[in-house]
Amino acid sequence: MPRSNAVPVMLAAMLLAGPAAAEETANYTLEKTAEGYVRMNNRTGEMSICHEKLNQLVCKVAADERTLYEDDIADLKARVAKLEETVAGIGKLPPAVRDALPTEEDFEKGLSYMERFMRRFMGLAKELDEDKTEPQSPATPQKT
């Protein structure tokens, strides 16, 4: 089969293959040009230039599409790097330690216990200190 007839024959075969293949080809329109073909995406309007190589249609993305594609890749790379940094930061604590940390509620409850303990302890220490500074009355002899 000559190379120039390969693409139209392939398109005809795809159209005859069934509704799924026909629906897939309806997404694109091919127009022959002097250098090859122009492929248009019927949904988005994006166009690509195509050439036949080894009985296959090879399409190149247009320059504007290429720039958008490369911008998307750069954006995704930045997002992946940020996510990896976040994951690395989370992984610094061993899981046993990270999972054993108290919740905020538990922490506040424990702090409340400590505060009550310290207030009582300091109150007792103050009472003992006051007892030492008061003058001692002479001991009265016991009568037996």
Describe this structure in words.
- There is one protein chain.
- The chain is α+β, with helices and mostly antiparallel strands and 144 residues long.
- The chain has three domains: 3-61, no CATH class; 62-90; 95-129.
- Helix content is 57%, strand content 16%.
Which structural traits does this protein have?
disordered N terminus
Query: Structural class of the helices, strands and pairings?
Result: alpha+beta
End-to-end Cα distance, whole Å, is 136 Å
The helicity comes to 55-70%
Largest sheet: 4 strands, antiparallel
Strand content: 15-25%
Average of pLDDT: 78
Q: Outline, from the CA principal axes?
A: rod-shaped
The helix/strand order is HHEEEEHHH
- Indicate the low-confidence ranges by residue numbers: 1-6, 12-23
- Count the strands? 4
Treating each run of at least 4 consecutive H or I residues as one helix, how many helices?
5
Radius of gyration: 41 Å
Q: Can you list the strand order of the major beta sheet?
A: 1-2-3-4
Total domain count: 3
